[in-house]
Amino acid sequence: MANDFSTIDLKLPKIKPGVIKLIAVAVIVLIILVGSLYQISPEEMGVILRFGKFVRTTNPGLHLKLPLGIEKLTKVPVQRQLKMEFGFRTSRAGIKSEYRVTGESLKEAVMLTGDLNVVVAEWIVQYKIEDAYKYLFKVRDAELTFRYMNEAIIRKVIGDNSVDEVITVGRARIALQAKEELQKLCDLYEIGIEVNQLIFQDVNPPDPVKASFNEVNESQQERERKINEAWSEYNKEIPKASGVAEQTIRGAEGYAMARINNAQGDATRFKAIYREYIRAPLVTRKRLYLEAINEILPKISKKIIFDEKQKNILPLLNLGEEVKK
Amino acid sequence: MTKQTKNILVIVVALAVLIILTDALYKVSETNQVIITQFGDPIGNAVTSPGLHIKAPFIQKANFFEKRWLEWDGDPNQIPTKDKKYIWVDTYARWRISDPLVFFQRVRDERGAYSRMDDIVDGETRNAIANFDLIEIVRVSNREFEMTEETSVLETREAVQEIETGREKIANIILEASAKITPEIGVEITDVKIKRINYVDDVQRKVFDRMIAERQRIAARYRSEGDGKSAEIRGQKERELKRIQSEAYKKAQELKGKADAESTKIYASAYNLDPEFYQFMKTLEIYRTIMDKETWLLLSTDAEFLKYLKSTRK
């Protein structure tokens, strides 16, 4: 030993024993300080145990505790919004998150409805650790317990709803009811968790049945389409028919007007002529007659004039042939 | 004694004290409870208050047990219900070591406890499930399902059975029966819940077939509704067309009839002045219209108009 020191002495500058002591003390103090100082991030809470006994919680900031394992620190992220997924797993979170369904997660999602049908329901639950003490010291595996509670509650609530309610109209109501019951159970179990939200993601019929559910949607659309087609036919034909009807009525009105006007015209004319006629009936009659003859005869191409006494002329006329021509 | 031996002695004694202290002191955490055993025999009650505690070194041993609430998760069991439907039932229980001494004596550790609890809770689960119809295990209450358009189509759907007991009470039956037994192993159970129920594959296939048939019924109903409604609309359209057309015809005929009557009246009042003259006028007018160049006119010389052809007599 002495030999070693002497060789070192040759190479290093001489250090006084006092300085070595000082460095040793400083190192010890440093170790103790490092063990005593701790920092709590804004979203966390510190839980301090002294020899295993809970003594205090600390808020975010820089704090001191007893070193050398006398006081132990556990950090609990009380402000952080935590999330649990059921029926699927986020394999890569991001702007376009990727999800996958594993055998285990599918088992979480398959459940019976109140009408003894089967649905596959995926949901997430958002929660916060509300009481770090309970979370750490009342239940051993609070997260696993919470998972079981979720599964039991969701199945219980869905078990009291029909498959149609679960898939369509009842979703929001079921989620709300499940959230409330879950919170009640959390309080009962003293698990220290506050349930913020329970949201159903996909709720679907099982794969083998899906096609028939789609068929229902299609048939529903088909029904709407048929009805719309019928209505569009209706709307195409009825206004047209109304127009035609209007036309008929207007035509009749025109006819009526013409008929009356004509009658009035004819009547007026007749009266006018008659007024003059009664002054000299005989000559007027003759004039009218002759005027008519004068007008008619020139238009007629075949005029045959015969004497009443000569009876044989008619048979000679080949009327039939003429007509045939 | 030289100074050197004295120093060595001091160090040895200090070391010995340290070793003894280390073994005599033990730390009970918030999450633990401890049973002290002396050569394997439990001494006194369980130590449950957290902090530093002291025991006799070497001859006494501290055995640590969990103090918090624990989960027991059963294996899924295939159980027939009372109405002979085979289902998988998966339960969980909330429990804790309530009497560490008994726990220590009967099952030694958690692994031992789990295996006993498997027997107890699974057994009680079987008993309970087998005593009830499936619907009792699935449903909690007799709440009426909200009718959707789709379910209302299935009017003929077999009325869903009323339940008498329900899921929660059945879970309680399992709990009560189990909780009676578990104190024997120092365990307290405060809750049993039915976690998962699923059909076994065979049954599931049949259920799927039923679901498919139900949906097909709904779809068929929608299709025929579509046909029916559109036919109804077409009928309505036909009726409307006929109404519009006939009303128009009626109106038109009325208008025409009225006008005809009116004109008849007008003509009559005028021509009544001298019916014979009217006939004369009208006949001449008709001659004008009916005789054209196709007409053959055979005129006798007796006709008034031709009488001057024969003579100039007055």
Structural description of this entry:
The complex is a heterodimer of chains A (about 325) and B (about 325). By secondary structure, chain A is an alpha+beta fold. The relative contact order of chain A is 0.06. Helices cover about 55% and strands about 20% of the residues of chain A. Chain A has helices at about 1-10, 15-35, 105-110, 130-135, 140-160, 165, 170-190, 205-275, 280-295, 315, 320-325; strands at about 35-40, 45-50, 55-60, 60-65, 70-75, 80-85, 90, 100, 110, 120-130, 195-205, 300-305. Chain A has 3 domains: about 30-75, no CATH class; about 80-205, Tetrahydropterin Synthase, Chain A (2-Layer Sandwich); about 210-290. Chain B has about 325 residues and is α+β, with helices and mostly antiparallel strands. Chain B is about 55% helix and about 20% strand. Chain B contains 9 helices and 10 strands. Chain B has helices at about 5-25, 100-105, 110-130, 135-140, 150-155, 165-180, 200-270, 275-290, 305-310, and strands at about 25-30, 30-40, 40-45, 50-55, 60-65, 70-75, 75-80, 85-95, 185-200, 295-300. The longest helix of chain B is centred in the C-terminal third of the chain and has 71 residues, at about 200-270. In chain B, about 25% of the residues are buried. The mean pLDDT of chain B is about 85. The chains are: A alpha+beta (about 325), B alpha+beta (about 325). At the A-B interface, β9, α5, α6, α8 and α9 of A face β6, α4, β9, α7 and α8 of B. β12 of chain A pairs parallel with β10 of chain B.
